[in-house]
Amino acid sequence: MKTKNNLITVGCLALLAAGFVARPAAAQHTIGVEVPAEDGHLEYTSVPAPPPVTELFAATALADVQIIQETGQNANRIDFVFVGDGYTASELDQYHDDVAGKWEELMTIEPFSTYRSYFNAYQVDVISNQSGVDHDPTQGVLKDTELNMGFWCSGIERLLCVDVSAARTYAENAPAVEHVIALANSSKYGGAGYRWDDLATASGSNVSSGRVVVHELGHSLGNLEDEYVRDTGHYSGSEVADANLSIYEASQMADLSTKWYRWLGETTPDGGTIGTFEGGALGDTGIYRPSSSSMMRSLNSPFNLPGLEALVVMIYADVSPIDDSTPTDNTLNGSEIVFVQPMAPEGQPLTITWNLDGTDLPLPSDQATLDLSDLSLSGSHTLTVTVVDETPLVRDPQARSELLTDTRTWSIDASGNGGGNACDEFGIAYVDDSTLAVFHRDQGWSAAWHYLCLDGYCVSGTPSNGYYFKEFAGTIGTTYDIDFKTQDDAQGQFIASGRESFTADNCRLDAPACGSAADCDDGLSCNGQEQCIEGSCQAGEPIVCDDGVPCTVDSCSEQAGCVFEPDHTWCDNGLFCDGQEQCDPTLGECTAGLPPCGTDDCDETSDSCGSSGDCGEFGIAHEDANTLVVYHEDRGWTGSWHYLCLNGYCVPGTLSNGYYQRSFGGNLGTTYSIEFKIQDNATGQFIARGQDTFTTECCTLPAR
Q: Is the pTM of this model over 0.70?
């Protein structure tokens, strides 16, 4: 549940000047925590539970709050809050850098990278009296800090505990709190997962310790159970509720159409296969997990496919696919522009479908606005918009229907508000499905008499709102002869005759008339300037943006006007060895790429540089038949952090013999997506992306 607090920034130094506020001695009961090992495996243990905070501590635990990212209203976002411990007032810049590094580390891992815009994140500036945390760098060192963080918790060096009550109290300075991440001012490897409190700890400046945070989100956000063995022995109980554990082997699971049966046989993000592997949280035997390894079993692995599905589904349990829309509580009159604002996951726009009275409108799947006046409505109608996330990470149709789908519905009454077009000079107007009006615009006659005629039947009408008109009974779809006759004292008799059909699309005498172009302006510039012509609004000519450069994508933006974005893929000649061609809008043409291999040999067949033993700048190297290495040549970066990624799974590597490198399990003959990311103190962030195939012909890096 989100907790709200309107306090964003407060001056807390005066309140805390008296120093650390003492709390009662620790309670005797214990709570369970997860312990990360440096090789990635996890263990479970118990630690003494912290006491609840005192009223005095709660009243003085005030701190400034900084926004890390805020993508929308808290009510439709998942809210992360960072708190720090062991950072003095002069070390807040270091704390902010540590938070930024941990946040970016989390956002490199799926599904958080794709759904980054679904999260708000805040950092609370907790100021401690002393720098560092307990038992760092050695056991026995004690520090005076606000959150009482320390290593060697319960006698385990890497177990980094925190006063959970104090951490959550400080976190509540943020506008909303769902998941708390407590960072220690330390470079020592360590962390802890408090799964029942939606809280995790990590060392602020250790590049590896943050992965325990990712594991804990598998629990607190995805409702996933541990896939490592927590309770040894044989599990003989009934089927469990957890999405990633089951008592059924693969064949039984498929027969029963239960748990992750839709994923059986699929390749996992780390190259394995989804099946049923014996052993999980509840026992060595009698219980099964979906894959050999995953983030819920080892911190060095990505989430498996059932885990990714559970996380995406539970993200949507908190976040609606529709972020905003035209309000639905008022009846529309058929002249409005209705809008819907979907959420925006990275690289996969949500699907939008507009439906009128049960029939889908033939509109693009990304159209977020609908001009009702274009529909020429009359009478009562129901308009519905449906927004769906069609992500392939979710295969459960019920979850997609109930959580990844949302709708908005509007009632429309276009019967008496002039929902159609205003009338022109002379003709038939629509009143209702059985009534028409013959009309003629008043031209200023000083008439002694006038008649309006339908199929030769002529009667006097009514002069009103600039028209002479008379209502007649009519039949939709029928064509009538019409006449208008008037006597003017100066001009004599005036007669107009014609023939017109009676339809629901006829003009309406009560439709809003315009007096100037300002009355017709819809506030949008890209669709041209609307005009008022003879009392009727006419559409403008849409702006055509064309810079004459074939390799740019030309579009009109309401905010920026004409926009010309270079499309480098248009220039790509499909050849690897001559480099990536670029679109240069200033030159109005494509420019040649930089050959990736320099003076080295280049293999167009395998899209690789050099031969075995001679690695190029960036790619996949061969370590053994089951192990590949993602590498990038060092350019002299002074990076505070870096990541090497295989199919979206990103972890720090090592710098050795001129290359940043990281080993991964791989299958020969498989093509992988690879990335390299690094932060340079002078030039900022550098990112390289590509695809490479793992073969025995791949180069070999120098021995480390």
A: no
